Amino acid sequence: MASSIRVRATSNGDITEVQALIQHPMDTGFVKDAKGELIPAHFIQELKFECNGKDVFVADWGTAVSKDPYVKFSFRGARKGDDLKISWTDNKGGSDTITAKIA
């Protein structure tokens, strides 16, 4: 199964810029389906980016984040070729992890 995470990380000097797109329904639990029944809440609770085993970005999310969230940030201290591990867990016990090389 393909990962739900697409990521691009590029290093320019001391700054590494990260862009990630995560496929997830991010259902709030307040929306009804075509039959008029509520769609149960299903959302990412924790999103984590690690570079060389050190946390560089951690987010605790709730239902206010939209479907298929996009994240962009930058940090210092990484080099080209370093590993960047991205992982998420959701409120239903789902999870995904991917590791990318910084270009």
From TrEMBL:
Entries under Gene3D superfamilies matching the protein: Immunoglobulins
Coiled coil: none
Ranges where the Sulphur oxidation protein SoxZ domain occurs: 6-100
A Pfam family hit: SoxZ
Name of the protein this chain belongs to: Thiosulfate oxidation carrier complex protein SoxZ
Gene giving rise to this polypeptide: soxZ
